[in-house]
Amino acid sequence: MCQSLQAIVVGAGIGGLAFAILARKQGLRVTVLEKTEELTPVGAGIQIPPNASRIWAQCGILEKLKKFSVVSEATQLRRWKDGELLCTRTVGEALDERWPWLVIHRADYQRILVQEAEDLGVIIRLGSNVQAIDFDLPSLSLASGEVVTGDVIVGADGLWSSLRNAILGRDSPPQETGDLAYRGTFSLPALQGLEDSRVDELCRQNVVTMWIGPESHAVFYPVRCGKEFNLVLTRPDNLPPNVRTEQGDLSEMMALFQHWDPVLTKILSAFSSVLKWKMMHHEELATWTRGNAALLGDACHPSLPYQAQGAAMAVEDGAALATLLGLYQQALQQNSPEANQMTIPEILENYEALQKARTTIMHSGSISNQHMYHLDDSGEQEERDRILKATEWKERPLGETEAFIWIDVRYQRAILRRDTIADARSQWNKMVSELDVTNG
């Protein structure tokens, strides 16, 4: 029996850890190289929609995540100026109780995944700064001078990926979207201290609340079992070109949103400080793979955050890639005929074929939502509001589409009900059947 495949993962973010966990569960040896000396999560709240929670359920982690999450019951769109409810979209368990829509603090998310990975035997090496990749061996050279070799290399090094540059053979930095985000969290006592019954009522609801308005929107939801709350506000970018993040000016933020729903402005008054984050994305890549190396997550498809699917897509990537490699390893160990006719580069190309079209659709969906969220007050905005308020949540006949994907039942089901692991197994079966046809 051949030895288990060795996977080297660059980056210990959500996507890299997702791959590491699922690959290890299938018997691959996995080492994660993380350049930081300490895992310090960036950001605050994060959403885990059903297509990601399904994956975590399938590998036995969902209940661990739920202990530190809130199960969202719905996402609500409200008018920016007065908080008028425009539309409520039930999510997660309303679609399928097995796959909830969770909202969680990023620090909790990463901590749980790191612990799970280490419990499974994944080696996580901090302070491992990758300087170069040799696609022929394949191997990675670290800043320390050490060379790390493996059978497959997974670039999960995020938005500013160096592995992306290496695979493409050129520098390929992300581009500015034209928006930035203010991010922050509040404790429940801090919000209760505002002594506002409307804020108290909002805090009692396990929902994601979105205020949509001219050039901006705001997202508010509970994390840490309702003990804390996450708030993200987007606005046109006014950071200098080379500045990714900086401390925000509270007075500037308050002035920008001063005429918004009084419930939102009341919550804003609880900010003691705020960070500004430049929002970036990247055009579709020509390829995600080269030899025995592949990219996943933000390294190959950083997207606009207007569908709450960025991290979920990284989890899908990790699950798909790990499943295909696991099936390949199983075939090798069983000395199956198809194993001798396949190569790791072919496995990686099939992973890309499985995921790339989907992530492109998701990126287009985010752009569509951005337009819908940020309409100026106008006739188009009034028509949008009328359509949203009249939504019946029925799947339209084939050939007919909704005005907005946010209320398109067929689109949402295709996104949220996706079984990535089953799709990866189907992709494997397709590969095997094509070999049979070729040999026949």
UniProtKB/TrEMBL annotation:
One GO MF term: monooxygenase activity
Pathway: Secondary metabolite biosynthesis
Domain FAD-binding: 6-326
InterPro entries listed in its UniProt record: FAD-bd (IPR002938), FAD-dep_Monooxygenase_BioMet (IPR050493), FAD/NAD-bd_sf (IPR036188)
Entry keywords, A to Z: FAD, Flavoprotein, Monooxygenase, Oxidoreductase
Family: Belongs to the paxM FAD-dependent monooxygenase family.
Protein name, per record: FAD-binding domain-containing protein
The organism of origin for this protein: Apiospora kogelbergensis
Phylogenetic placement of the source organism: Eukaryota, Fungi, Dikarya, Ascomycota, Pezizomycotina
